[in-house]
Amino acid sequence: MSSTEINGSSTDTTQFRLGTRDKSVGWYTPTLENITEVQRDVLENYSHLAPDRVIPHILEVRDRAWEIHPYPCIGQLRFIDLTISRSPSYPIILQRLKEGASLLDLGCCFAQDLRKLVHDGAPSENLWGAELKGDFLELGYELFRDRETLHAHFIEADIFDAEGPLKQLERKMDFVQIGHFLHLFDLEGQTKASERIVALMKPEKGVLILGQQLGSLEAGPIDSRSGSKMYKHNIESFEKMWKEVGKKTGSEWKVSASMDTGLGIGENKRTWDDPKSRRLVFEVERIS
């Protein structure tokens, strides 16, 4: 869950103060004119919202979430992004899930990607969602109106808690989805988190980690407005990190990654981004 997508390029420190519920900040989008056909399909045909209620419902739930956790991803309505369905491997993942494979959405926010999978035919019993903020899991039920019908497993967990709730999933996952999550940490933290993710996966060839995060044409550490240390990868540094993770875990991974101007970067509306910011999209497959 991306609570800090801000790299501190602005000189206006009041405008970019994380944690404020002031809706004049740059990362609060007050209105929503349109949504994609895929998003509308899920909300109308899975959540059974009337067409004229879809956008008002999204905004109502967003404003409730904003009062609890006023993060950029909430203000910018990232919780309706259905990123997993855009993965090149999505058809394979969906078929494997139908055949009994398991998937963990790590840092799942409102677990929107899990709802997309279920809508497309994945058995919800094979799906897991983990979030540091349990409030988001509750809001997910309210956004998608499926508290009585969804049978996915949700846990409130910290990736760095080796003895926490995630321990029950060790060596059990075929797929792990991580969206807007790893970039919250410095390089050491990202490496440790990736090692932990490897421990959650079945120790066999073909298991797959997929997701996206904030990246940069020039890899390196940054200071976020929240005061935390972050690290933005480019493709080369991301590959290098996974080679290190492989050495530390006795495994080998093939990285397929690309960078683009998604996340609104290309629209030049995110005044906190530097010109080198990019979205890093990746699939990481175990090959030995």
UniProtKB/TrEMBL annotation:
Pathway where it operates: Secondary metabolite biosynthesis
UniProt KW Transmembrane keyword: no
Cited PANTHER family: METHYLTRANSFERASE AUSD
Family classification: Belongs to the class I-like SAM-binding methyltransferase superfamily.
One GO MF term: methyltransferase activity
GO BP annotations listed: methylation
Protein name, per record: Methyltransferase ausD
Keywords from the UniProt entry: Methyltransferase, S-adenosyl-L-methionine, Transferase
Presence of the UniProt keyword Protein biosynthesis in the record: no
Alphabetized InterPro entries for the sequence: Meroterpenoid_MTases, SAM-dependent_MTases_sf
